[in-house]
Amino acid sequence: MNDTGDEKAIRDLMSELKRALRDRDAESLRGLYADDAVTYDLAPPLQLSAADPYIAGVRKWFSDWRTPIEMETRDERLHVGDDVAFSTSLSHMRGTKVDGEVDIWSRATFGFRKIGGEWKIVHEHTSVPFYMDGSFKASIDLKP
Amino acid sequence: MNDTGDEKAIRDLMSELKRALRDRDAESLRGLYADDAVTYDLAPPLQLSAADPYIAGVRKWFSDWRTPIEMETRDERLHVGDDVAFSTSLSHMRGTKVDGEVDIWSRATFGFRKIGGEWKIVHEHTSVPFYMDGSFKASIDLKP
Predict the structure, then answer these.
(1) ipTM score of the complex?
(2) Extents of the domains making up chain B
(3) Which CATH architecture has domain A3-127?
């Protein structure tokens, strides 16, 4: 596959990720990740080192939503090599959970490997910064 | 340069980053980053899109330390392609700032590009998760 093909394949993967998130489709989401994907999520723990426990957590989290989960991205950058790639973006997540409205901007880094000819997510890092004013509060109110 | 050479070059870069951090050597640190590096840091804002303002912030932060900044990493994974690479690790930062001791584990993702034959950091994402208990406190007390 040429460079353009790889780039398109990764963009398609990320579109499918947004679709699966919106539809709270944990099974499709699982198929996008390598088995040994390392994830650094908004919630503890510091890391998970396999896709199955990550998706198990996502599935539980999906059950807390009343509406589709809308994810809009901004400032997307995609770096594609022969079989290693990564992307960076700001992500705007919106919707309604059982305990209220969600409207939060975060930062997202994805790492990809081409495995058996197919691009998979091998790493996901999502975060917000925190305030250095002594409160140590997560900065969930920032906008780009 | 062969695969092993690229991997070694990136590991050397990361060793030099730790050295520069320990010695609070902002000038050497600056040399490791591409001019248009995108950084997602522990502190706001959500992102910076150039190395100069990032290093300016680091330089100011260095002045708040009384001791060398020790950075130990764990669970390091390095994915190296032809001219794109990324790494993931947990980072343990320790030392003494003017306002007290620091002892914190965070997650770090670095993205690299080979530019003019030399590997540079084009992306850095450092974070801690936050507690989903309604406090929205940054999880600065986690250990791997």
Answers:
(1) 0.96
(2) 3-127
(3) Roll (3.10)
